[in-house]
Design brief:
Elements: H1 10-19, H2 23-26, H3 55-61, E1 67-69, E2 90-92
Parallel strand pairs: 1-2
Length: 136
């Protein structure tokens, strides 16, 4: 990859990586899995629109084996939006972006509808010896 642009939140970046398209053309939101727009049956769900082809589908059609391990966070509202529906033969991981690895439950706040960290981070770039304020 020589031109992959990461988004500031995980779901759009993962959707872009899985489809080969810029996040703005695939998924610009980091909504929880409960978010949906019932009037749009194709792209009205969180994650990659259902009519978009992904990398695993392309690799499988070329004869490659496809397996995935890790966080998906690119849609799961319908079976065809899950990793197995997107062309992966096997998958072990989590569907969404808020996972508690030590307890079985997470509250709804942690699924992306509310960002508890918004405006709570400190920009430490100015303390880095190589920081030039955006000038190269």
């Amino acid at each position: 990859m020589d031109r992959h642009y990461a988004y500031k939140i995980c779901s759009p970046s993962r959707s872009a990586l899985q489809t080969g398209r810029l996040a703005v053309h695939v998924n610009t939101l980091n909504t929880g899995v409960t978010a949906q727009n019932r009037s749009d049956p194709v792209s009205g769900y969180a994650g990659i629109p259902r009519n978009v082809t992904g990398i695993a589908q392309k690799l499988r059609s070329a004869g490659y084996r496809t397996h995935m391990v890790g966080k998906w966070d690119a849609g799961m509202a319908t079976p065809e939006q899950t990793p197995l529906g997107r062309g992966y033969e096997t998958w072990v991981g989590y569907f969404q972006h808020a996972n508690d690895y030590w307890r079985k439950g997470m509250n709804l706040q942690s699924t992306g509808e509310i960002d508890n960290c918004l405006n709570e981070f400190t920009d430490l770039f100015m303390h880095n010896a190589t920081y030039r304020g955006g000038v190269r």
